[in-house]
Amino acid sequence: MIEPTLVVIVLLALIGAGAPIFLALGTSGLLGLWMARGPIAFFFAPTSFFGQLNSFELIALPLFILMGNLLGATPVGANLFKAAALWLQWLKGGLAISTVGASAVFGAVSGVSVAGVAAVGSIAVPQMLARGYSERLAAGSVASSGALAMLIPPSVPFIIYGAVSGVSVGALFVGGIVPGIALALALSLYIYIRVSLNPEEAPRDTGPKPALSVRIKALGGIWHALLLIFIVLGAIYSGFATPSEAAAFGAAGAFLIAAGIFRVLTLQKTMRILESSVKVSGTILLIIGCARIFGDYLNLVRVPELITEALVSTPLPDWTILVILMLALVVLGMLVDAVSLIVVTTPILLPLIVTMGFDPLWFGIILVMNLEIAVVTPPVGLNLYALRGVCPMLRIETIIRSVLPFVAVQFVVLMIFVLFPQLSLWLPSLL
Predict the structure, then answer these.
(1) Is the pLDDT of residue 193 over 90?
(2) Fewer CB in a 10 Å sphere around the end CB: N or C, the chain?
């Protein structure tokens, strides 16, 4: 185990030195292959890299990212929040609960959590602060609910996990529905209970109740987003289209919404959106390809097998091992970005999960639920910095403190689905 230990040290040293994650993974993996097989490693590494990326399902990745970026340039996120606020005004903490609902729906048309935080947070936080909501409740509800985009299909992390593990992306999309709804309801319930116990955090709106005609008119600003959800997910679940083909429908639909309905696209803005989508997609694909090099080295020297044997041979019950793994993933998520966590840990942990008798589909759902916690925990929680970028009136320290109770709620929901796997598997089993 000396050589694998050295390879891991090199990986951590490169990451600590500030090297891009794909370079750290590729370099350490190539070093390991060279130590194990000599010069032939320079043949193995490119084969692993291109073999990982030679996947039809990965075509969905850049298309869903493009769809999210196109919708992020429109008022869809703001319209979703306004409609939710009008319909949920009667609830205690209604604006914060509206944020959760708007983020859940926006996540279903973008698949990118940062986009949801930017689109919904830019209007939700100022509205809540103007109506007397506490900064912590406003910031926490936006940052945490933005993470729902990672779980509610179409989900970019599910596409990446499917490419790495071989699990059907369509099945993962179906499996993410129940946990996504459960998490949204849990966050909403927490907000309601919190505001009930501390009314000063969210003063009740004493103005006149909006007329029914006004609330119905507000739905007119979101019908196209709901239609896009129906087209994309309906095409996948009905078997009419693969996730990659449905992603193409989604990207085309998002372009029509941005250019034809809202008329917000200029040539310059379109080029910026395409440039951003290419950069993000290229970065993720580089990480996936280089992580395959690292993963193939680990498999070559039997690291996953040895870890599986060591854990299975312990007297600990399966649920205890699972809880330990979940805690480890939460800690890793605080230090490593979501994409890297999927592509690095999946080849190591999936053999253990299968040996213990659990479904790889269930593990993919649980892994992405872990990532939801990762994107709202420092120091790598991207949602925290995205919220700070669109809401400069909030200090980053305030944002970090605000998400901690919401993270606790997310972890409780995570453990429920860890201990009761059938909750996330019953819907895919019906299809």
Answers:
(1) yes
(2) N
Record the pTM: 0.84
Residue 16: Cβ within 10 Å count: 9
Residue 177 contacts residue 431 (beta carbons within 8 Å): no
Place of tokens 């972890």: 411
The CA-atom distances, in angstroms, between 325 and each of 86, 322, 350 are: 42, 5, 11
pLDDT band at 180 (very low <50, low <70, confident <90, very high): very high
Q: Tokens 């996730």 sit at which residue?
A: 243
Mean pLDDT of 244-257: 89
Q: What is the token pair recorded at 154?
A: 């179409």
25, two tokens: 């993974």
Distance of CA 284 to the CA centre of its chain: 13
Report how far residue 100's alpha carbon sits from residue 340's, in angstroms, rounded to the nearest whole number: 27
Three-state DSSP at 281 gives helix
Can you tell me the distance from the alpha carbon of 264 to that of 274, in angstroms, rounded to the nearest whole number? Answer: 15
pLDDT tens-digit readout, 123-150 = 888 888 888 899 999 999 998 988 888 8
